[in-house]
């Protein structure tokens, strides 16, 4: 029998060696279990115990009674406990020690790499020299664990963890709750409000439930809700501009709109359209400006806000 790091084995407690701990055996090989790795009552010589095998700080195989959050070949979502800029991310694996997710397993762009507190779906594996290491779990591994999203999810907001992020969009494993491990989701690039890191927690709206049980997601509100919020944002922006004018219109390039306002050009045009229909703004070539009605509406809103603040208890008299 081979003692394999990353696995749980039932081994016999062969002998105690003070001040180190106990030697466990499979009948052919022995492995040390330090006193610090005990759980529960004092073990008895000759009894069999389930122990997890790992490599200690000196790269020697060792045993522990502690229960890991992941086993060799398994998929689990592990929290990022620490970051080393030249080595990678260290993940909490439930043993009081951490598991390395090497830089080679992470996105090339630094801003897309996980940070402390993020949670990454990984597989426990061996590196080239046999040490335990985490590898990012991809679609083929996660698909076996995912459940089909119910159609009732349509137009609801869900939360999950980013499993992969690309120029075309980001893949998300949505929380499973009582249903299971999770459901697959995809946020297209134009439905993201910003770039998303690997392992980042994200909240998004289900825009479509596919026949295969996967879902399309958006970080934007529904158009009728988002239009109101976006138009209010544009009005507030214009209020702060000299002469109530901004150098943006429906002729402005989409990437400039995205960078300046954090919304798609389609959302920008919908918000502008509403403001123009309400008579609050007008467009002149590549610029947009407040109308007299729009300026008056902003002034009225500002006055109402000041009156409300003044009427609160404790306001200066």
TrEMBL record:
<dbReference type="GO" id="GO:0003676">
    <property type="term" value="F:nucleic acid binding"/>
</dbReference>
<feature type="region of interest" description="Disordered">
    <location>
        <begin position="284"/>
        <end position="317"/>
    </location>
</feature>
<dbReference type="InterPro" id="IPR048587">
    <property type="entry name" value="CvfB_S1_3rd"/>
</dbReference>
<dbReference type="InterPro" id="IPR003029">
    <property type="entry name" value="S1_domain"/>
</dbReference>
<dbReference type="Pfam" id="PF17783">
    <property type="entry name" value="WHD_CvfB"/>
</dbReference>
<dbReference type="InterPro" id="IPR040764">
    <property type="entry name" value="CvfB_WH"/>
</dbReference>
<dbReference type="Pfam" id="PF21191">
    <property type="entry name" value="CvfB_1st"/>
</dbReference>
<comment type="similarity">
    <text>Belongs to the CvfB family.</text>
</comment>
<feature type="domain" description="S1 motif">
    <location>
        <begin position="155"/>
        <end position="220"/>
    </location>
</feature>
<dbReference type="Pfam" id="PF21543">
    <property type="entry name" value="CvfB_2nd"/>
</dbReference>
<dbReference type="InterPro" id="IPR012340">
    <property type="entry name" value="NA-bd_OB-fold"/>
</dbReference>
<dbReference type="Pfam" id="PF13509">
    <property type="entry name" value="S1_2"/>
</dbReference>
<dbReference type="InterPro" id="IPR048588">
    <property type="entry name" value="CvfB_S1_2nd"/>
</dbReference>
<dbReference type="InterPro" id="IPR014464">
    <property type="entry name" value="CvfB_fam"/>
</dbReference>
<feature type="compositionally biased region" description="Low complexity">
    <location>
        <begin position="295"/>
        <end position="317"/>
    </location>
</feature>
<dbReference type="InterPro" id="IPR036388">
    <property type="entry name" value="WH-like_DNA-bd_sf"/>
</dbReference>
<dbReference type="InterPro" id="IPR039566">
    <property type="entry name" value="CvfB_S1_st"/>
</dbReference>
<protein>
    <submittedName>
        <fullName>RNA-binding protein</fullName>
    </submittedName>
</protein>
